[in-house]
Write a structure and sequence with these properties.
Strand order of the largest sheet of chain A: 2-3
Oligomer: heterodimer
Strand content of chain B: under 5%
Distance between the termini of chain B: 54 Å
Largest sheet of chain A: 2 strands, parallel
Strand content of chain A: under 5%
Number of helices of chain B: 21
Helix content of chain B: over 70%
Radius of gyration of chain B: 26 Å
Structural class of chain B: mainly alpha
Order of helices and strands of chain B: HHHHHHHHHHHHHHHHHHEHHH
Distance between the termini of chain A: 42 Å
Number of helices of chain A: 11
Helix content of chain A: 55-70%
Shape of chain A: globular
Number of domains of chain A: 1
Largest interface: A-B, 86 and 87 residues
Order of helices and strands of chain A: HHEHEHHHHHHEHH
Chain lengths: 320, 547
């Protein structure tokens, strides 16, 4: 009973933290990018102001849109929120632990993608359609890469839930292996694509022809745009949580052990800060690539994931 | 009594045939309600399928199977004569493989013949290229039953023989053959579904993909059963059977909807549709449900089978020899490609056909569906709900079938549970709705689209210039460029046409020429032939006597 109550509280805390911290993360990335480029940059709470502004603005619906115009932002937000709730942040063993199967997560990403793409096609104007077609192209390789990477985790952790993988990686002696390095590289490439960061897409781009994610939400405004923007922020946090949980599961708290929570929270903040800095520095040191280079980029990550699996098989064969 | 002399026909229902009959029943009702109930050929088609499923002896099975083929050929012929010849050729081929196979003793040869015969009928690569041509030809009700039902009957024959009748001779490599054929179907089917323009052809290509998914599941199960891995066999069988159930519901729904689109707009080419959600909201909503199943989205009917299948393939990659494990890793990547392509195809179907602006006046003026088709599609949509939301329960119903196919199999409970996920979603939505209602500015205002700052369209184009709207071709162009050019032939046709059908046609042409040459032989040639044959015969006889 106590265990259930504790894990309920942990789950609620997790939900509160991710929904509160997602805009901050986006603001931090922008701030550090600006600093590294020698500019002052917007304040870190700028995304909160953006969300509030969108909340208070009137919502326009294009005349050529159908009745389902309002459905897509809600569906995209819902799918990303569910995924964010399933991925552990500071502790393992939450109430959502059993639901957090990696394939369910991949499915939720697909649901969010489908909703965004349909939102892009909704009004029937050129930019949305162009962005939607490109998004589908990227997703094909991203999903394959994600599945192959997942295989490596399942082989090492003997379980497919993100929670189980985190527990296994934190408690078992896995050691630093070449496979995990390859898997990390592959997962990072997929993460950059899914969250629409440089080098596959530019979140602060203002040229419609070069946009992918932004092009699909061009016709949205007010509360609907708020949902899309918030979903994008949650998505960034979610991917950082995912990578942090799997590759840096150190000092993660257990939900039924309340004394371990402060350290878990502290480590979560440190992990996120580290990843924010790395992401910002990476983004200013590379350029966005051409659209038709992205499949090669993701194809390479798929091959890396494949190699990770093959190395694991070889290691199992020769008894390492 | 009809049937083989002295034996008659025998019918018998077991768990497997009951499952497939149960799968067929709602489709038959839906197709009949949607406008096919007056056609005698249609009922002959249905009778053939039911006979094949309920057969207890090989003769009845073949009789039902061939009745089904012949009736569906007539129905295809009435819709469109062009693909009918190709279709009947494939049907004859599959009959020619099945008839000897069912009378052979349990052996690998029998399995290969069954695989060729049933696989050709089910649209398994590389013998699939007739399916996207023949399935769209007849009226929608028949297309629905062909894609949702006939394909399943072919798979039923495959399952019955591979798992039950030929079980004594089972070999692990049978499964591998099935997996390879299935993966080919998944990839080609999903890719072509993403690239085709005609709505019904898109759906038929998607059927090829789903047949591939089922075949991969069956292959993994067959291999696991032959190698004595009860957990994996159970998991893969669950995946294959649940996929068959889900596909048997959403694909007929989509085909019926495509027929209604054609009826209302006059064409079902995606490049001539657009904005149908405005005029046909009921049809649009039902098609959206079906497309969610086709795309295997979570909380939809197609996700649980995909989930089980991916877990089965991961499970298969976790054990066994190193080559097999590498092979299963590659299969996982291919399944990922196929799943994302299927999502793209489903999104394209809805986004280009039903959202956006109308591309023609007919699309703008389309009227919503009548009561009959609405009932038919609604029935299928309601039946989709338990598969979508309570897949664990449906799997429990499937357990007797799994036990019949692999008696040692274990069926662990499903790890994907949609109901808590749905509850969690409701909580999130309630919270978001509260925030938006409490602090947000309410209501919406209609306004001209921003459209990158372009001006308003001229008054004679109320929906703007259709040419400025992304077309189905344009939407698929990035995929066609990045993947299509590598996998399809130069003019974006199916590789099976070039590598399988074209060589067979050449052989056929040579055979015809040879036969014609023999028919036209002069009297001298014939006499010479008879003389040479006589000499050779005597020579052989003499050598035989002397030696």
């Amino acid at each position: 009973m106590l265990g259930f109550a504790l894990s309920l509280i942990a789950t609620l805390l997790h939900a509160a933290f991710i929904f509160a911290a997602a805009p901050l993360l986006m603001g931090l990335v922008g701030k550090i990018r600006a600093w590294a480029l020698g500019r002052r940059g917007a304040p870190v709470w700028q995304p909160y102001l953006l969300l509030y502004k969108l909340l208070r603005k009137s919502t326009l619906v294009p005349e050529t849109a159908t009745e389902l115009f309002a459905v897509w932002p809600v569906a995209a937000f819902l799918a990303i929120s569910l995924a964010a709730l399933l991925v552990p942040s500071f502790c393992t063993g939450m109430l959502t632990a059993d639901l957090s199967d990696f394939i369910t997560l991949i499915g939720l990403f697909a649901l969010a993608r489908a909703a965004t793409v349909l939102g892009g096609l909704e009004t029937g104007f050129g930019f949305g359609g162009a962005g939607a077609g490109r998004e589908i192209l990227f997703s094909i390789f991203a999903e394959a890469a994600l599945l192959v990477v997942l295989l490596g985790f399942v082989l090492l952790a003997h379980g497919a839930t993100v929670d189980g993988i985190a527990v296994a990686f934190a408690t078992q002696h896995i050691g630093i292996s070449v496979s995990l390095g390859f898997a990390l590289a592959a997962l990072l490439a997929v993460a950059l694509t899914e969250t629409g960061r440089i080098p596959t897409d530019n979140p602060s781009g203002h040229l419609e022809l070069a946009m992918v994610h932004e092009a699909m939400v061009l016709e949205y405004s007010g509360r609907f745009l708020l949902l899309f923007e918030y979903a994008a922020m949650l998505r960034l946090l979610l991917w950082m949580d995912l990578i942090g949980t799997i590759f840096l599961p150190f000092f993660m708290a257990r939900a039924d052990d309340v004394l371990s929570w402060p350290l878990g929270l502290l480590c979560w903040v440190v992990k996120l800060g580290l990843m924010v800095v790395i992401l910002s520095l990476f983004e200013i040191s590379t350029a966005k690539m051409r659209v038709f280079r992205v499949p090669e980029f993701l194809g390479a990550s798929m091959l890396l994931g494949f190699l990770a699996g093959v190395f694991l098989f070889v290691a199992a064969r020769i008894g390492l | 009594m009809v049937g083989l002399p002295g034996q008659g026909m025998h019918l018998q229902l077991d768990a497997l045939s009951l499952l497939f009959l149960g799968l067929l029943a709602p489709q038959i009702v839906a197709s009949a309600v949607a406008g096919m109930r007056g056609s005698v050929t249609f009922w002959a088609f249905v009778l053939g399928m039911v006979l094949a499923l309920a057969a207890a002896d090989a003769f009845t099975l073949i009789f039902g199977f061939e009745l089904m083929s012949a009736a569906s050929w007539l129905l295809v012929l009435r819709g469109d004569a062009r693909p009918a010849t190709f279709y009947v050729t494939m049907a004859v081929f599959s009959g020619a493989c099945l008839i000897p196979a069912v009378f052979l003793p349990a052996s690998s040869v029998a399995f290969l013949l069954i695989l060729l015969g049933a696989g050709a009928k089910a649209g398994l690569a590389p013998l699939h290229s007739w399916l996207p041509k023949a399935h769209p030809a007849p009226p929608a009700g028949v297309s629905a039953l062909m894609s949702g039902g006939m394909v399943k009957v072919a798979l039923y024959v495959l399952i019955r023989y591979a798992f039950i009748i030929l079980a004594p001779a089972q070999q692990p490599w049978w499964g591998v053959v099935l997996i390879v054929a299935g993966l080919g179907s998944v990839l080609i089917g999903a890719l072509r579904a993403m690239l085709e323009l005609e709505l019904k052809t898109v759906l038929a290509c998607s059927t090829v993909e789903h047949v591939g998914l089922i075949a991969v599941g069956l292959g993994v199960a067959l291999r696991a059963k032959a190698m004595g891995d009860p957990i994996l066999a159970g998991l893969a069988l669950q995946a294959a059977l649940l996929c068959a159930v889900a596909h048997g519901l959403f694909k007929p729904l989509l085909f019926l909807g495509a027929g209604e689109v054609k009826h209302a707009v006059g064409t079902s080419s995606l490049n001539w549709l657009g904005g149908l959600m405005r005029g046909m909201p009921r049809l649009g909503g039902l098609m959206l449900l079906g497309a969610a199943g086709m795309a295997a989205l979570p909380l939809g009917p197609g996700f649980a089978p995909e989930f089980l299948l991916l877990h089965a393939v991961i499970g298969a990659a976790a054990t066994g020899g190193i080559l097999a494990r590498i092979g299963f890793t590659a299969s996982l990547a291919l399944l990922g490609l196929g799943a994302a392509l299927a999502l793209g195809a489903a999104v394209r179907l809805i986004g280009i056909g039903f959202l956006g602006r109308p591309r023609t006046l007919q699309a703008a003026a389309a009227e919503d569906i009548g009561r009959g088709p609405l009932f038919a599609m609604g029935l299928l949509a309601v039946l989709m709900l338990p598969v979508a939301l309570l897949p664990g329960l449906v799997l429990q119903l499937l357990t007797p079938v799994v036990m019949e196919l692999a008696p040692a199999a274990q069926t662990p409970p499903l790890a994907y549970v949609p109901v808590p996920l749905l509850l969690l979603g409701f909580l999130v939505l309630a919270a978001a709705g509260f925030v938006l209602q409490r602090w947000g500015v309410r209501g919406t205002r209609a306004a001209p689209s921003w459209n990158g700052g372009f001006g308003a369209p001229p008054p004679w184009l109320p929906f703007g210039d259709p040419l400025t709207q992304p077309s189905a071709t344009g939407f698929a162009e990035p995929v066609a460029r990045a993947i299509g050019q590598g996998l399809l032939t130069r003019d974006m046709a199916d590789p099976a046409e070039e590598w399988v059908v074209a060589p067979l046609l050449r052989v056929h042409l040579k055979g015809v020429r040879l036969a014609e040459r023999i028919r036209r032989a002069t009297i001298r040639e014939r006499l010479a032939f008879v003389f040479v044959a006589l000499v050779l015969f005597l020579l052989a006889l003499g050598l035989g006597e002397g030696g």
